[in-house]
Structures are given as C-alpha cells and as structure tokens.
Amino acid sequence: MLNRPESHNNPKVLVIVPAYNEAEGIGQVIRRLREDAPYADVLVINDGSSDATSRIARASGANVIDLTCNLGIGGAVQTGYRYAAEHHYDYAVQIDGDGQHNPCDLRRLLSAQFDTGADMVIGSRFITKEGFQSTFARKMGIGLLSALVTRLTGQNVTDPTSGYRLCGRRAISLFAREYPTDYPEVEALMLLYNRELSFTEIPVVMNERQGGVSSISAMKSVYYMSKVILSVLLMKTKKKRAWENRYES
Amino acid sequence: MNLNIYIISFCISLAFAGTILYLIRKRRLREQYALLWLLMSVFMMALSLFPSLLDEVAQRIHIYYAPSLLYLLSVVAVLFILLHLTMAVSTLTHRVIVLTQTLGLQEQRIQKLEAQAEGGSEGSMGLASGPAFGSRPEQTSDPHVEQSSAPHSEQTSRPHSQQPPEVHSLQQTGMPSGEFSGPHSVEPCQRISAAASSEEQIIVPSSSSTEVNR
Asked: What ipTM is given for this predicted complex?
C-alpha cells in the first residue's frame, strides 16, 4: 500500500485467509494465491493457532496477523475486514485456509462485482453442482438454511454457508463495524439485507479440504443449526436501516 | 422457636448486605453488578423482620402454603441475577474480541514498521555491515522474524509489491500447481483460464465500472 499507485484502474484487493491450526495446507494456499492472483495482497489471520501456521504463512510470503486468543472464525475474519477498512482496500476476499476454494475463481468474483455492482459476491458450489458437494447431512442443513434465507430476504440464495466471498468498500466498512462472532456466514447475509446492501452469487467449484478439521463437527451441528436459525430469525425482526459508509478505526 | 428462625435469617441477610457493602468498598465488586445483590438483601431483611408480609401476599394471590411463595420469589430472584451475569459475560466477550483484534492489528503494524526501519538502515549501511541497529528489537522480541534472513526481511518491508521476488524461487522449488488440489480443481481452473481471456481487462476496469460500484 506504500508503493502502490492510488488509482481506479488498479483496485486494491485484499485476500483474507482465516486460519486456525492449518499448518498443513496454509503454505500451498498462499502459494496458489500468489500465482493465480498476484495483484492481491494476502493477509492471514492466525486465530491463536497452536501449530506452525503463523511461521509457515510468513515464510510463504503472506502478511500475518496473530491473534492472542482464539476468537473463532467470525472474530478472525472481522480482523481482516478491519485491516481492509483501515488500509482503504477496494475489495476484500475471504478464502478458507484449508484449500477448499480455488484462487483462480477470484478473478471471476471480481468480474461479477464489476458487472453487477453488488456489495458482496458469494462463490456458490450449488449453482452448477460441480466439484466437491459436501456430505448428505450437511447438504440437507444447507438446503434448509438457503430456503430460510431465500424466504427472508426475497432473493434466491443457493449456498448461504459458503465462506468464499468478495466484499466491496461498503460491505467492508459494515463488516469492520459489526460482524457475527461464531458461524457468521449466514448471519452476515442477513446483516447485509438489514443494512440494505446487495449481494449476488456466482458458481464456483470447491475442493475437499486439504487438512485440518472443519469448524463444524457432528456433535456441534445441532447447535450450529439452531444457533444460526435463531439468529437469522432474530435478525429479521430488527428494523431495516441503511448503512452509511463510515468507519473510524 | 418461630421468633428464633426469623432472628437468625435477619442476621444472615444483614451479614449478606454487610459483605456486599464491604466488597464494594474494597472495589472487589463493581457497583453495577452489586445493586441487584443489595436489592435482594434488603428484600430478605424485610421478609425476616415482617414474616406476616409473606402470609398476607400469599393469601391475596391464593397460595395456600405461604413458604412456596418464598421459594418462587427466591428462584425468580436467582434467575434474574443469573441473567444479569450472562449479560455481563456477553459484554465482556465482545470487548475481548474487539481488543484482541486491535492488539493483532497493532502488532502487525509494529512488525511492519520495524521491518521498514530495518530495511531503511540496511539500505544506508549496505548489507555487508551486518545486522543494523534497527533490527535489534525485532530479534529480541520475535523469534520467527529472527529466523528469516535478509531477503525475507526485505520482503516483509514491502509486502504489497506487485511481483515479490520470492515467487520465482517458490515456483522453481515448489510443486507444480496442479498437484495442490487434486483432480477436482484442475479442470475448472483450465476452463476458467480459457474463459478468462475475454475477461482480461477486468482487473483494469474502465471508470464506468467503478461508477456502477458506488
């Protein structure tokens, strides 16, 4: 950001990679990002990992923010949005640290943003139904959530739990201010809806995770579903209020 | 006998109130949390001094066994205090999250500034002059940074350069890109790169597309 010319022809793109004990895969994710998206700055949020995630990410050439305690995915991602807001990035892209998302799709997320002007673009794995499609039980849950979100927002949402998303400036400033803490993806959509920001989906192909474990284990899935449904329904009861683009760090 | 138990319970509630006041005075208990406790002890004292109050109220709302009203009230009071505590914990959690984020952001900024200072002094003194003065605090503070050699520190000092020098060496030593994500991703990536030729100018959008985005 120091030796980067400030111009509209060259938008500043930040890739936010939340990582919790992802030492196995993080190096390759960063390397792939720097090959496929050399125009983007990579920021790894090390969410209090107990393994070598931070060191490997640094050695792979990413910017790393180390969080002292484990905040969970929401808190980690919000750190990235705060960074993006403070450093005046035009776009912030969330990518999981486990290799699920293909960095080469980033270009398509960007072009979808240019085309539609949406505040957030989500990479959905269920539009073309290609690549890794998740397990049956999980797909059921996602189906339920997408039906719920589609109903509540009046906009077709196929993959509300996708963590592959690109945000424009308005969404960055909103998320820097308020962002749900745990299991944030679905709630973030409702947050956008409540603040009258727009979002759209494009098809992407996802992989099976490379290493580490998903933040949602079998035991937690019941808690996950009830928590997400409750918070989504409660979000709907909140009054719609347009977001003014403002962020004081 | 009857009188006895009331005196005892009055003493207990008096001691309770005294303890709370003492804790507030010693600043072991914040006033905002203590108010509810104080209210409860005043209520306890009132009931133990005038036990007929309980009987009267119970009769008025058709509770035939007066002590059960006492249990009900005490359970409700405990519930409220628990709710109050959960609210306090939620507030604290939110504060911890914001603070941890801020700490992380500040730490990263400090590291960047230190790397810049190091890079600057290296530039003026030359690489041959050994570790510069500016690099010393970094070596003592962060073992990870210490491990990284000169090209690394140069890289961290300019993290946003478009084409970092390291990428080439990684491409040479690292694995071919197809190996990373298995058979799944190779196909879509190729498909996309074929489609991307028409999207080549996306990264250099015209001013009209930035207008759309406002």
From this structure: 0.84
CA A12 to chain centre: 17
* pLDDT single digits (tens) B42-61: 888 888 888 888 888 888 99
C-alpha distances (whole Å) from B108 to each of A51, B74, B101, B112, B121 are 19, 51, 11, 6, 20
pLDDT tens for each residue of B112-154: 999 888 887 654 443 333 333 333 333 333 444 334 443 444 4
Q: Nearest CA to A113 among A172, A153, A186?
A: A172
Give residues with Cβ within 8 angstroms of B79, minimum separation 6.
Answer: none
Domains and CATH numbers, chain A: 13-237 (3.90.550.10)
Angle between helices B51-60 and B66-125 (to 10 degrees): 100
- Picking from A10, A65, A114, the nearest residue to B104 by CB comes out as A65
Residues of chain A found within 8 Å of residue B178, distances taken between Cβ atoms:
none
Residue A25, C-beta contacts closer than 8 angstroms, at least 6 positions apart = A97, A98, A99, A209, A210, A211, A212
Structure tokens at A102: 């293909």
Task: Record the tokens describing residue B196, joined without a space.
Answer: 């991307």
Query: Chain B contacts of A199, Cβ < 8 Å?
Result: none
Is the Cβ pair B148, A59 closer than 8 Å? Answer: yes
Nearest by Cα to A173 from A109, A108, A121, A243: A243
Evaluate whether A46 touches A57 at the Cβ level (below 8 Å).
Answer: yes
> Is A58 within 8 Å of chain B by CB?
yes
Locate the domains of chain B by residue range: 1-49, 68-160
